[in-house]
Amino acid sequence: MDIFLWILIFLITFSIMEFMAWFTHKYVMHGFLWKLHEDHHHKKHNSWWERNDFFFIFYAAVSIGCFISWDSYGVWAGLPIGLGIFAYGVAYFFVHDIFIHQRFKLFRNANNWYAKGIRRAHKMHHKHLGKGDGECFGMLVPPLKYFKK
Fold it and tell me: What does the pLDDT look like over 75-99, one tens digit per residue?
C-alpha cells in the first residue's frame, strides 16, 4: 500500500508542477522577478548561463529540502514529493532548454505533432518581448490551440 501511495503522490506532485510552472512564469517571472527572467527573452549576453537559471536552482533547492525532510526528519511524503519535483524539472529541462531553445544540440529533427505544438506555443510566447505581454502557460501541456495540423 505504501508504494501505491508514494506513486500517487509522485504523480500528483508532477502534475501540480505544471500548474506551478504556469503560475511562477505568469506572476513571478513576468512579475516581480522580471529582472531575472528578462535575459531569457532578450539575449544581451554571450554566456551559456542566464539569470533565468536561478529559477531552476530554486526548485532544485525545494526538491532537496523534501529529500532532507524524508531522510533526516522521517517525513514519509518527502521522498515522493521531492522525486515528483525533480522529475518535472528534468522533463522541463529536456523540453524547454534542450528541445526548444537548443542549449544542447539534441532532438533537432523531432517533428511529430507534440514537438510542433510545443515549438509553436513557445514561439508565440517569445514573440512578445515585454514583461506584461505574451501568453504564459505550463511547458509540458500548452493550450490545445497550438496542436493543430
Answer: 999 999 999 999 999 998 888 777 7
**CA distances in angstroms from 145 to 9, 17, 66, listed in the order given:** 30, 21, 36
> If you compute the radius of gyration of the chain from its CA atoms, what whole number of angstroms results?
17
DSSP state at residue 28: I
How many other C-beta atoms are found inside a 10 Å radius of the C-beta of residue 114?
Answer: 12
Q: Is 130 exposed, middle or buried (0-12, 13-18, 19+ CB in 10 A)?
A: exposed
List, for residues 97-142, the tens digit of each pLDDT value. 777 777 767 666 777 777 777 777 777 766 666 666 655 656 666 6
Q: How high does pLDDT run on average in the chain?
A: 82
Grid coordinates representing 104 are 544542447
Amino acid at 16: I
Q: Are 38 and 135 in contact (CB under 8 A)?
A: no
Q: How far apart are CA 1 and CA 24, in angstroms?
A: 34
C-beta of residue 102 within 8 angstroms of C-beta of residue 93? no
Relative orientation angle of helices 54-73 and 78-92, to the nearest 10 degrees: 160
Here the cell at position 92 is 522541463
